[in-house]
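Structural prep section.
Before we set up the soaks we want a predicted structure of the protein with magnesium ion in place, mainly to decide which crystallisation condition to try first. Input record follows.
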Amino acid sequence: MSLGEFDLIQKFFTRSVKRAALGVGDDCALFATSPGMQLAVSSDMLVEGRHFLSTVAPERLGHKALAVNLSDLAACGAKPVAFTLALALPRADERFLEGFSRGLLALADLHDCELIGGDTTQGPLNICIAVFGEVPVGNALLRSGAKPGDDLYVSGTLGDARLALEVFRGAVALEGTSFDAVRSAMETPQPRVALGMALRGIATSAIDVSDGLLGDLAHVLRRSGVGATLEIDAMPRSTVMAAQTVAWQRECTLAGGDDYELIFSAPPALAEPVRAAAREAQTGVTRIGRIEAQAGLRLIDRDGLAVENRFGSFDHFRS
Ligand code: ADP
Ligand code: MG
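Run finished without errors. Recording the tokens verbatim:
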């Protein structure tokens, strides 16, 4: 006998809640934000073939589904509180559900983020999570706050997820441990929650990199009414990335996507607090350019020479 809808919810997605007043099982979940805090809400959907390949292990898929949502909270400097899970499944495959829920709930536990409800239906595999976080009133990091003269930074390293995708596509060849490393970057991104929180009151703007650095940076520039110069050879790279051709390095780090790192701006006078925040969050940050009053994005290479911006950004309706 295969598992029914309510057995499935009970077995894989029902746990006792600690912080929320009411979790899975009623018509609504209930939870309160702490005094002086604002609720930060975000939702991201993952569709098979679009956001993940059928080859991904269920445990990693569970991790990634929540990670991309937590990354949005990180970009706002919010602390994760709770999430809901809307799931369309082709069938009640217990092996899949066991792995998926394990990966999902392990990351949830790591960030103290409770699963408080959702929806389950039969259909093509589709995962939609809504995440709730909290941030002190007026303290959220926004896309709109970058100021001329600010330094531009990015966390971690860029481009590995795209490099892994190119290996799957057959455009790049990588062996054994190198492939495993970039594949992990693609399948199990680590949301920069601690860094986002540590940057409250320091960063003037922030965004997470989901569609590629240049495209996501462009959102910040537009919302802030500013421009920037970016040092394209200053992009932080893994050792695997650093071993690729310069053309692939630039393509993957600047226009790769699926990085889930934070791009943020801060005044030069706060360079030391930025470094302290990075240390506190145990996350590397690299200065990659400067915000300027002149609109538009200017790219320069390691010699300070202008480079034409021929790099695309990911758009679901254009690619
Ligand atoms: P309703 O029909 O009232 O929307 P459902 O029958 O869909 O409720 O769901 C029953 C309970 O199980 C609700 O509390 C709902 O939030 C929860 N739930 C359903 N699917 C999931 C899921 N995938 N993960 C967590 N909770 C879920
Ligand atoms: Mg109901």
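Observations: The radius of gyration is 20 Å.
Flagged for discussion at group meeting.
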